[in-house]
Design goal:
alpha+beta; disordered C terminus
Length: 153
């Protein structure tokens, strides 16, 4: 990642509308959802990390605490022309570093079947049986935020 900058934002940030639009275009529109259906009820209590290029949101990942030491990574989205460039990995690793700094010890997520390999390469392990969510096959995954094993990037 060379030209993007990462920033945690709140719902009052000007970039939030761009984040919602990116999430809708990448994650929800292909499933037939309206733009209004992209926001979650717990957005305000969640961390929002965005990648910016010249002021434009080109990637995002969110995290919702589900306890004092655990929570869920969700709504990871990267502009299609930036996918495969390492931006997604950079976003996840930056989020994990901030979570560890805040005392979180575990991250869980609901990975779409098409993203399981991506998360597995980042050290996330499948938990339980696959299932269907929003009409798409998913797999729950989990990763400890303890000391990284050799080879983690």
């Amino acid at each position: 990642m060379s030209r993007e900058t990462l920033r945690f934002i709140g719902l009052d940030a000007p970039e939030y509308a761009q984040e919602l639009d990116l999430r809708w275009r990448v994650l929800r529109k292909p499933l037939g959802f309206a733009p209004e259906a992209v926001a979650f009820p717990f957005e305000a209590e969640s961390l929002h990390l965005v990648a910016l290029d010249a002021g434009r949101v080109v990637g995002c990942v969110l995290f919702h605490p589900e306890g004092t030491e655990t929570g869920r990574l969700f709504q990871m989205a990267v502009e299609p022309d930036r996918q495969g460039t390492g931006l997604g990995t950079t976003l996840v690793r930056a989020l994990e570093a901030e979570l560890a700094r805040r005392g979180f010890r575990e991250v869980i997520l609901h990975a779409r079947d098409s993203a399981v390999g991506f998360y597995a390469r980042l050290g996330y392990a499948p938990v339980g049986a696959p299932y269907v969510e929003v009409g798409v096959p998913h797999q729950n995954m989990r990763r400890s935020l303890g000391p990284r094993a050799a080879g983690d990037t």
